[in-house]
From TrEMBL:
Species annotation: Dicaeum eximium
Pfam families cross-referenced by the UniProt entry: MAM
InterPro entries: ConA-like_dom_sf, MAM_dom, MAM_domain-containing
Entry-linked SUPFAM superfamilies: Concanavalin A-like lectins/glucanases
Protein name, per record: MALR1 protein
Gene Ontology cellular component list: membrane
Residue stretches making up the MAM domain: 5-160
Length: 160
């Protein structure tokens, strides 16, 4: 896929996530960074990059917001596939939908750390009659050594 449709975080260029290098709660790193798990990306590559929650987070949560998507139609639903890592029960990873006419973010998917210390993959499908943004939200209650929330390889279908 083109850089428009896929964010693998190997570079700082990711048109669909225009602000990911500005968001203070997330850090772009690889498994060799000395920052704890994950020690590789979802392909098992220790030098490949992903995003994880920073240990210097100011608050307990950090958001990653996409650019604005146009309304979907019946032929082209917006499908978003992503790999995620949630290592502890006290941590949550959520995906939210913000429609143009609404101030609030609707939670459309979430997971807490019951699947410990492994990469998992999920695909969400979005159907919206108006412009929308998608928000990836990582949350941790406490910051202990070896805890981590991470995201890698976000792929957006043509309908997004």
């Amino acid at each position: 896929g083109s850089s428009w449709n896929n964010c693998d975080f190997e570079t700082n260029l990711c048109k669909i996530l225009p602000e990911f290098n500005l968001e203070p709660g997330w850090v772009r790193r690889n498994g060799q960074s000395g920052m704890g798990p994950p020690y590789a990306d979802h392909n098992g590559n220790e030098s490949a990059y992903f995003l994880s929650l920073s240990s210097e987070m100011q608050s307990s949560s950090a958001a990653l917001r996409t650019s604005v998507f146009l309304p979907t139609d019946e032929e082209h639903l917006c499908q978003i596939r992503f790999h995620y890592w949630v290592s502890q029960m006290s941590e949550t990873f959520m995906v939210g939908l913000q429609k143009h006419s609404e101030d609030t973010v609707t939670n459309i998917w979430q997971v807490s750390g019951e699947l410990r210390n492994q990469w998992n993959v999920n695909t969400i499908t979005i159907n919206s009659t108006e412009k929308f943004e998608v928000i990836f939200l990582g949350m941790m209650e406490t910051q202990r050594q070896g805890e981590s929330v991470a995201i890698d390889d976000i792929t957006f279908s043509e309908g997004c």
